Amino acid sequence: MIRQPAAATALLVVAAGVALCLGTPYVAPHRLPAALSGDGLEGVILTELRLPRLVLALAAGACLGAAGLVLQEALRNPLAVPEMIGVSSGAALGVAAPLVLALSMPAAVVPLLALGGAVIGGVLTLAAAGFGRSPAAVLLTGAAVSAALQAGLLVLMVLADQLDLQLIYRYLLGSLSARTWDDVSGLWPWLVVAVPALVLCAPVLGVLRLGDDDARAMGVRVRRARLGALAIAIVLIAPVVAVCGPVAWVGFLAPQLARRLRPAADARAWLLWSAVWGALIVLCADQPARLALAPVETPVGAWTALLGVPAGVALLRVRRPAGATRPSGGSHSPRTVPGGDR
Amino acid sequence: MARAPRPTGAPEPARLGAAAKLGLLLGLLAVALCAQMTVGRSPGAAGVWEVLTGSGEPTARHIVVQLRMPRALVSLGAGASLGLAGLLLQSALRNPLAGPEVTGVTPGAVLGAVTATGLGLAGWESPTAVVVAACAGGFLGAGLLWLLAGREKGDPEQTAVYGVLVSAVLAGLTAVVLLVAPGELGSVVQWLIGSTEGRVWEHWSLLWPWALVWAAAACALAAPLTLLRCGDDQATAAGLAVGRARGAALVCAVALTAGAVSAVGALGFVGLLVPHLGLAVFGADLRVTLPGAALIGAVVVCGADAAAQSLSRLLVEGLDAGRLTVPVGALTTCVGAVLLLVVARRQGAGPG
Question: A GO term (biological process) for this protein (chain A) (predicted)?
Answer without folding.
Answer: siderophore-iron import into cell
